[in-house]
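---------- Forwarded message ----------

FYI, see the Stage 0 sporulation protein A homolog record below. Original note from H. follows.
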Amino acid sequence: MDYILLIEDDTDLAAGLLFTFQEEGFKTLHAACAAEARASFKNKFDLVVLDIMLPDGNGYDLCKEIRAFSDVPILFLTSCDDEANTITALDGGGDDYVTKPFKLDVLLSRIRAHLRRRNTQPPQAPFCGGVRLDDAQGRAFAAEQDLRLTLTEYRLLSLLTRNAGLILKRGQLLDALWDGKGDFVDDNTLSVHIRHLREKLSTAGSGVSIRTVRGLGYRLEEHAT
């Protein structure tokens, strides 16, 4: 049974989500504030649903704390619907961003997609431009330096690596990353993940780069030696 940590200070919303998650077969623990969330970190969760505005802190800081010891998928669920908050959340290690008010079926679909991806070991990824992917652990290395990718960033790099040199359209990437539910993803979510991945590849001095092909999509290119 998948175990979800729900960090939400709105008691009415939390009660409704707890009931729904349990009806869907998920084991769920609710934390109403940052302190309760930190106290629960000793448990091993399969997914975290995280609000930004909390009475004793914020979701951004909690996300970074979780990322320091876990690659568990983190889905932000918040009323902060502007682009700046979306970028901050994803840059801080979040995998997805859903704004309130939301459609319950869409939220559940995205939760199930993240859990399926986490529970399904992908096929062996190739070695490209000095970048090595470890599918068993969901980790990527450049010059043997751990890139410390989030789960979504790893999936994105894995997909680009398998198709190195080929143009992948934005729609293809969204469909692959979110199980055909790309139309539910905020328009800038993919761009933020691409930018974050580029920064990590560049900082590590990898032998590859992600090129934007205007009007088409993205292509992973190996640097000339």
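H. also flagged this: The longest helix spans residues 104-119.
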